Amino acid sequence: MTRPTILPPQEHPAPPPPAVQETVAALPGGPAWLEELESTVLGLRDRWGLRLGRPFQGGSCSWVAPVATASGRRAVLKVAYPHREGRGEARALRFWGGDGAVRLYESAEDGFAMLMEACEPGGRMSEAEGSPEELLAAGAHTLSGLWKHDPGGSLGMEFLADVTVEWAAATRGYMEYHRPGFDPYLVEAGAALLETLPATSERAAVVHGDANPGNILEAGGGQWLAIDPKPMVGDPAYDLWPLVMQVEPPLDHSDPHRVLRHRFGLASGILGEPEERLVAWAFARAVESSLDLVNRGAREEAESEMAEAEVLADLAGV
């Protein structure tokens, strides 16, 4: 992997990628955040003694770039548009302390600017070679690192149970308002699980919240580290769904039920979480995601997500 370019000290930061600019510009306060971004980055550069690199491409609402510290250590600087899902990112990285996620070195008072470990070689799991089972196993081991510490409270992050109750209400509301033609029994079953699953968990962890293969990076020596969490405190079984479904699309197989049974069984053995809870959370999250996509006007993606939810419903015995 080619090392990113570190700019000469006098250079000003490059703007974020066009897709980030477009997304943030449409958000409340987004234009002001974009206008102030250069001065924000320069202030952090001076505060933490950094040399800036050119920002990475990709992402949706943050400026992220490789940097070098005064001692020559390679790191990554992230400045995020303030939003609810990212509010606990710095707290979570600090809590995990490098177990399963990149290590946090510094953070701003509001938590939306962070100096963190540069994960090298840094290739994304979504682009890695290997069978789906090998990648799933590696991702599950990464999640187990995140979950191994008992948070003992909220740590200033949201509780999963509070968030999923909101999602259940939104799911029902979107179903009633948009009338997308989905099976109302399955939608209600998914919404009900969003309300009831958190209360039946036997343990709590700081969950990643968005553990898809694009958010897991190769760290060398067979190790992987998570980035870009949307953390909450609650049932760890919540976390697995995007990893299981995105290491390879299960509906591309002639028998997706068999493929998914094998994947959930494999992950359950690594994580020590009951297979039925992993499946139930996956079904509930697929239903919620599908209705959220309907509300955002992404009908084709919503139908694809609901097709996955139907298979997961069969596995969950819904």
From TrEMBL:
Signal peptide (UniProt feature, chain positions): none
Q: Which Pfam families match?
A: APH_6_hur (PF04655)
List the Gene Ontology MF annotations in alphabetical order. kinase activity; phosphotransferase activity, alcohol group as acceptor
* InterPro entries linked to this entry: Kinase-like_dom_sf (IPR011009), NH2Glyco/OHUrea_AB-resist_kin (IPR006748)
- The domain of life is Bacteria
Name the keywords, alphabetized.
Answer: Kinase, Transferase
What biological-process terms (Gene Ontology) are attached? secondary metabolic process
According to the UniProt entry, the coiled-coil residues are none
The name on file for this protein is Streptomycin 6-kinase
